[in-house]
Amino acid sequence: MKHLTLPNDIETIPRLNEFIDGFCEEQGISMDVCMSLNLAIEEAVVNVMNYAYPEGTAGHVDIEVDADKESITFVISDTGKPFDPTKKEDVDITLPAEKRTVGGLGIHLTRQIMDAVDYRYTDHRNILTLRKKIYKQKVL
Amino acid sequence: MIIITEEKEGLRAVFEGRLDTPAAVKAQQEVGPLLENADKTITLDCTNLDYISSSGLRLFLTIRKEASAKGGTVIIENINEEIRKVFMMTGFFNLFEIRNA
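Predict the joint structure of the above. Result:
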């Protein structure tokens, strides 16, 4: 299990990417899966950074990651306002450019990449659990 | 940083490295010339782009919408396998003319 706490400042996103890359390397997770995980988790964390706390207010987002033989699990939590991203209506990716809206793509990508996304609000915390099945590369 | 150069039929913008959320926010400040010339052909050169987040996709979509409003064309060049997957997941393949060498 590894843990990272970031302030609600998107400039710190490269630290999240380093954290995920480091974990994937330790676990022998392939580069392409690691890249997808980076994207899915970046989108979920950016969502918290941008919307959980009132503008101009300092806050934090906690990221935990753990892996077993079959899957990798991230838990993203914050003490901001309750928000369930799993309830957000999905974007219609079949629309032509003129009718596409620019929002909603982030959470859409998170849901596409991860196999399970579960939301809970407990003890004044938003807790988002995201799981992806993995097939580890053989360590030579 | 995006490098924008003039071409015979319009503008070419070269993207490099990671277009993650903070990089895309910075890039938003730099795409003014592309939006102003959206009546021409805009080529987004992704040969050296490793990674794109939804903020980067939004940037591409903004340019594409401006082009449809002004009658221009947006071409995306040389996306890697990872970005190709992201384009598949978001339906971006249908929105752009995509050319891979």
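Residues 3-99 of chain B form a domain with the Transcription Regulator spoIIAA fold (CATH 3.30.750.24).
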